[in-house]
């Protein structure tokens, strides 16, 4: 229970997992058999890898990550990569502990932003700026917006990979028809009218996994960007004193509390978690008419949502404008501009070379790109829309591609952009805001206190 | 939890092992336990104390920063709140569980067949892990897919875990459901230890069942009550797993006790200095409570006086 003992057990796990991985690998099996969400990690691809790579479980992403490593290993028998897989929440703690203990894997999978900045500050990751200069095509083929979260003080410390996942508004057409809403709300007034209409017909207007807290945050990110423009949060990010004391922030906080008071979110939202997909279930079972969520849930809506997607009942839009007085561009979006892989500065030169070879030859190669597209996700590669074809997901893919590539600003999620310490205070205060246990003024005062920490 | 109990045990061996000649061999036998205690309680404890005077983000180096962490923790309104929640959990755990456990324990001490069958059933919650219990209750209490909406029972369809007041009492209910069987088991054993002759004497004196319970059973259970209370109080102080899975301290911070606050600051906020300061506070409170409860027991002679 005390942090020291927990840390010990994490350290021993950190030491133990790669050994377990290597042991598995030496069995000569064709990779991990237990592909489930085991938190202790199951893995080790191919015999005795020289470089190590940790990443997350969860299908369909996990299978693609594994496949990419396996293809690299098949092509490079003399310098392989051994991978270990972790469940999302367990990984977040473990990777920090491992890095702090000098036990980091060669390649560190992450979210960029504030977490990466922390690694950089402590000289834990390699500067990849010169690598991108030597491999200019690796930079030019990726979405420019994906580099922002990989850059600290003008230098690039991570390779943007995988997919771009903006936050979008999902609507269930079947429910909208049932409650007599013919047009999707175009601004905040429209949203408040929709809330009234839905509630009067006994349907929850919006689903929300409030216990996870970052789910609530997505609403604030959009509201602030629309009302005040992207500069307001940029000021916070830059550590400007009292940056939260902007009239746009007060308006954002007031609006969201109005929405909570108007029963805009499903009853009991504060105890619903996003990790269990309960918030999605509320939406696709028709208990709620809409949900604001990441593009990453599309795959699950398709498989678990019955005829929601296949029957053409799913409608998706960017977050609407708030009013005509908006300072923010309505094409702006927020979300995850990519996933990021860094190289540990503690790795040996041979390991670093393997990692760089992996980046230039296999990571996000044509095969991997095709696989991502097949799952209904958009890899952060320019011109990938040419591969969308005319399949059932073509419209969705095009929507995500356009939302991401045509956005004037693609803001990284606040909790990823800020330092972990500041993000924790932010999430805590957001939860209290949605619980109506603090006022907008108190929220601003609490948040101003931790700016720049 | 483990860090707290041993000092009491260590105290017992030093005062209890007062035999002069044979004492030497007895002391030798405590050595393995002492080594484990040193390695897994004392050294980490010193480490935590040291870390509380530093700034440490897990990723970087440990940087000494004097009283920064302590000042920050002690001036944060989150600390009195977490303390309040912790004590509220402690008080209500005790107030709800102790009478219920004593009554159940006395009931189960009887050797009648139906009582033994019921006793077996009562133990079922003991077989489940806290995480499993939390997941199960979370599913049952879900406001949209849980027991209430599933059976269309309006009174069961509440915002059980999303309303600050309700969430606390739901937590109290689940904790009691989980731990009353354990404490009943302790009381059952203790009641069975009370000599039959005492009850026979009481009956001859004309004491009825109620009088027997209050004048004989309850006083005889004094030390068991202290033991069980110590377990409850110290357990409530470090209570973590069930809350973490059930509410994660929420809604907002309605169920965020000290242990949860420490974890969230340390492992989610990367502020190990702050977390260590809170850990140190927990240790001090735990030691004070254990000391207080031992004092409460007093040092009077045999429980079976007059038996």
Produce the secondary structure layout.
The complex is a heterodimer of chains A (453) and B (307).
Chain A: H1 3-26, E1 51-56, H2 61-75, E2 81-86, H3 88-100, E3 107-110, H4 113-121, H5 129-134, H6 136-140, E4 151-152, E5 155-156, E6 159-161, E7 163-172, H7 173-178, H8 188-200, E8 204-207, H9 214-228, H10 231-237, H11 247-261, H12 278-284, E9 288-294, H13 298-304, E10 314-317, E11 333-336, E12 339-343, H14 349-361, H15 366-374, E13 378-379, H16 394-406, E14 410-412, H17 414-417, H18 420-434, H19 440-449
Parallel strand pairs in A: 1-2, 1-3, 8-9, 11-14
Antiparallel strand pairs in A: 3-12, 4-5, 6-12, 7-9, 7-10, 7-11, 7-13
Chain B: H1 5-16, H2 23-29, H3 31-51, E1 54-55, E2 63-64, H4 68-75, H5 78-109, H6 113-122, H7 130-140, H8 147-151, H9 164-193, H10 196-204, H11 209-220, H12 222-237, H13 241-246, H14 258-268, H15 272-297
Helix pairs in contact in B: 3-15, 4-15, 5-9, 5-12, 12-15, 14-15
Offer a few descriptive terms.
heterodimer, A: 453 residues, alpha/beta, seven-stranded mixed β-sheet, five-stranded mixed β-sheet, 19 helices, globular, B: 307 residues, mainly alpha, two-stranded antiparallel sheet, 15 helices
